[in-house]
UniProtKB/TrEMBL annotation:
It holds the Pfam family Glyco_hydro_10. It comes from Micromonospora purpureochromogenes. GO terms for biological process: xylan catabolic process. Its EC number is 3.2.1.8. The lineage of its organism: Bacteria, Bacillati, Actinomycetota, Actinomycetes, Micromonosporales. Residues 20-322 form the GH10 domain. This is Beta-xylanase.
């Protein structure tokens, strides 16, 4: 059987050495715990120097506030416009930030033509929309809010009535399956509000996620919007609620955080939210819904971390302090979907049948992807291209030992997206997943390696081509993780 390895060095700038001073930006501080800190961004503010200065300095994740919604990306049925969304995505990527996609299927902000559809016409339009947008951004999105706000408020635990819901109760899973097929590299999230504590609505979402996991409907994460004010305060059981979802085997993310108020009361609430996320190992990051108070959808409540002039508020300081108090010892231990480098280059030639590679050399190639900026958790895709008339790949795994002695912590995953041979990557054909993740963590500087799961393993047929890579998030001086296939 064949084996080949890609080798990556984890970033060295993330370590908070004993005695080192605390991180001074939200993104750098969150990265020390293996998490991101993001902001909702509006394309029309990317020409505002103050806004962009704060964005580039503080944040490691970006969510387009409106630019990826259905009305923005498909204003006329079948005609897609990505100019404003692209401005945000390109800005984020050029500055070392990742992107949360928001949102593929939602009852609100639909274009007029979709509002006028129903039944199978609307269902197929929705699935096509999900497929087209997720395919267009394939490889560029950390996580998609695949479905947004599909449950009703109040005590019923029912689905929200909407044109999408009236196409059939399975519309949510249809959206998730279409998203997975279009972009196997993105985490797929369900996102909602008033689900931040345990209540009838969050119980209903919980039951849906549990059902999806049981039936193999692809879902990787749940987003908790976390729009708080005096009428809707941070729930006492906020952390417990995040944890119970995480216990279902999904990541949890705080996706649209804002808290109305001022001074120390507002600051205390921000601190509580941050500490709750840090206490849940699968809480992978926090996004605030805007940068300055004046950028907020509810500006009159002054709910954000910077005032209208771009000055840091007490809420900012409380957030940074809470992030820094998390220290570098509590990384999320996630099992992400498989990761495929967007720049993967399938082989263009196949050896003639008369010259199959001898038994042990079915994999070849290699390369190193972008390191990202030091303040961001490094994501280091490597590619190894399998070519020729090779034996089937049925297993991928990180080769042990993959943690250098003395590392505080690391987390990694090997992944491959297997497409039918000759299927152009840019058309986004879906295929089988091959993937395995392994996390390792050391409390006393002695690496402990836990075996990866095989639940996402698929099979690559003889003669087919694929790429596979390594993604790591960690803190430490160096590492030489490898992916191997057999
Ligand atoms: O912040 C967004 C605002 O600019 C839009 O006008 C509004 C339209 O519905 O959507 C706001 O963002 C919402 C997000 O997409 C979903 N969760 C609630 C957010 C605040 O309304």
């Amino acid at each position: 059987m064949a084996a080949a390895a890609g080798v990556a060095a984890l970033g060295t700038t993330l370590a908070l050495a004993p005695g080192a001073s605390a991180a001074t930006t939200l993104g750098a501080s969150a990265a020390q715990t293996g998490r991101y800190f993001g902001a909702a961004v509006a394309a029309n503010k990317l020409s505002d120097a103050t806004y962009v200065g704060i964005l580039n300095r503080e944040f490691t994740m970006v969510t387009p506030e409106n630019e990826m919604k259905w009305d923005a990306t498909e204003p006329t049925q079948g005609q897609f416009t990505y100019a404003n969304a692209d401005r945000i995505v390109n800005h984020a990527r050029a500055n070392g930030m990742r992107v949360r996609g928001h949102a593929l299927a939602w009852h609100s902000q639909q274009p007029g033509w979709a509002q006028n559809l129903s039944g199978t016409g609307l269902r197929s339009a929705m699935v096509n929309h999900v497929t087209q947008v997720a395919t267009y951004y394939r490889g560029k999105i950390y996580a998609w809010d695949v479905v947004n706000e599909a449950f009703a408020d109040g005590g019923t635990g029912a689905r929200r009535d909407s044109n999408l819901q009236r196409t059939g109760n399975d519309w949510i899973e249809a959206a998730f399956r279409a998203a997975r097929a279009a972009d196997p590299t993105a985490k797929l999230c369900y996102n909602d509000y008033n689900t931040d504590g345990q209540n009838a609505k969050s119980n209903a979402v919980y039951a849906m996620v549990q059902d999806f996991k049981a039936r193999g409907v692809p879902i990787d994460c749940v987003g908790f919007q976390s729009h708080f004010n005096s009428a809707s305060p941070v729930p006492a059981d906020y952390q417990a609620n995040l944890q119970r979802f995480a216990n279902l085997g999904v990541d949890v993310q705080i996706t649209e955080l804002d808290i109305e108020g001022s001074g120390s009361a507002q600051a205390d609430n921000y601190g509580r939210v941050v500490r709750a996320c840090l206490a849940v190992s699968r809480c992978t990051g926090i996004t605030v819904w805007g940068i300055r108070d004046t950028d907020s959808w509810r500006a009159s409540g002054n709910p954000l971390l910077f005032d209208g002039s771009g000055n840091k508020k007490p809420a900012y300081t409380a957030t940074l302090d809470a992030l820094n108090s998390g220290g570098p010892t509590t990384p999320p231990t996630t099992t992400p979907p498989t990761t495929t480098p967007p720049t993967a280059t399938p082989p263009t030639t196949t050896p003639p049948p008369s010259t199959p590679p001898p038994g042990g050399s079915a994999l070849e190639g290699g390369g190193e992807g972008p390191q990202g900026r030091g303040r961001q958790a490094p994501s280091v895709p490597l590619t190894v291209v399998k070519s020729g008339r090779a034996p089937a790949i049925t297993k991928l795994e990180p080769a042990a030992p993959d943690v250098a002695a003395g590392h505080a912590e690391t987390e990694n995953a090997c992944g491959a997206d297997v497409r039918p041979e000759h299927a152009p990557a840019d058309r986004g054909e879906a295929g089988t997943h091959l993937g395995v993740a392994r996390s390792a963590r050391s409390a006393e500087g002695i690496p402990a390696i836990h075996g990866g799961g095989g639940s996402q393993n698929g099979q690559l047929g003889a003669g087919a081509s694929t790429t596979f890579g390594f993604q790591g998030t960690g803190v430490g001086p160096s590492a030489t993780p490898t992916c191997s296939a057999s």
